Amino acid sequence: MCANINIAANTFNGFLNNNHDLSNGSKKIARIVKIIPVMIQQIKSFNNDSQNHVFTFIGIVNCIERNNNKITYEIEDDTDHIKSFKWLETGKISEPLINLNTYVRIYGHLREQNEKKCILILRIWPLIHLNELTNHLLEVTYVILKSQKMLNKQNKKSNTDNAFMIDDNFIGLTKEQSIIFNIIQAKNDSENGIERNVIKTCVPKSIDVDNIIDFLINEGHIYSTLTDNHFKTT
């Protein structure tokens, strides 16, 4: 899950939201904010390149520390806990009342202090309805699945593009034959090679995969393995 949520930060733009006042009452951000919903364990898996992202998460307040210019909250969810802090400014509106052992939602940036990940709070408020917690969990799941789908699509396109870059005269094959040969060769490290239907999903429908496979077998370039529909290159 942590790997997938890292994908989310790099490939998925999050939820577009231009209605949230993330400045806690001072000035509204005059741009669309891209927000990525996460669990706390996932936050800790991010690197410093993610410090410009806006993350949102929900957790229970375990500890509150306050001094003249900063409030620090210890927040915990089902995956981990993290310190989140908010700088106080004189002349600003009062902070929302946050109590121990209650659920809160936080919007903030990832920061690192003393080699530990923490959150710079843009806005924090107590949950009114637990339905918001359920919605948050669904949003986290959606981002992970959406990001994985995007990554798979990118990998598929990359594999196809690489296949089309093969020299047309490679081992005396035509361009289309070379494409199929290269796709099969890329799976030689797997136990049974690659299956016929999988090959068909990697190339345009205009390529006659079945005839090319028959040709490659007859010419001794590939051979069947587990079944007549699984192949490796020689």
Automatic annotation (TrEMBL):
<dbReference type="InterPro" id="IPR014892">
    <property type="entry name" value="RPA_C"/>
</dbReference>
<dbReference type="GO" id="GO:0003697">
    <property type="term" value="F:single-stranded DNA binding"/>
</dbReference>
<dbReference type="Pfam" id="PF08784">
    <property type="entry name" value="RPA_C"/>
</dbReference>
<keyword id="KW-0539">Nucleus</keyword>
<dbReference type="InterPro" id="IPR036388">
    <property type="entry name" value="WH-like_DNA-bd_sf"/>
</dbReference>
<keyword id="KW-0238">DNA-binding</keyword>
<dbReference type="GO" id="GO:0035861">
    <property type="term" value="C:site of double-strand break"/>
</dbReference>
<dbReference type="InterPro" id="IPR040260">
    <property type="entry name" value="RFA2-like"/>
</dbReference>
<feature type="domain" description="Replication protein A C-terminal">
    <location>
        <begin position="152"/>
        <end position="228"/>
    </location>
</feature>
<dbReference type="InterPro" id="IPR036390">
    <property type="entry name" value="WH_DNA-bd_sf"/>
</dbReference>
<dbReference type="GO" id="GO:0006260">
    <property type="term" value="P:DNA replication"/>
</dbReference>
<dbReference type="GO" id="GO:0000724">
    <property type="term" value="P:double-strand break repair via homologous recombination"/>
</dbReference>
<dbReference type="InterPro" id="IPR012340">
    <property type="entry name" value="NA-bd_OB-fold"/>
</dbReference>
<dbReference type="GO" id="GO:0006289">
    <property type="term" value="P:nucleotide-excision repair"/>
</dbReference>
<dbReference type="GO" id="GO:0000781">
    <property type="term" value="C:chromosome, telomeric region"/>
</dbReference>
<comment type="similarity">
    <text>Belongs to the replication factor A protein 2 family.</text>
</comment>
<dbReference type="GO" id="GO:0005662">
    <property type="term" value="C:DNA replication factor A complex"/>
</dbReference>
<protein>
    <submittedName>
        <fullName>Replication protein A</fullName>
    </submittedName>
</protein>
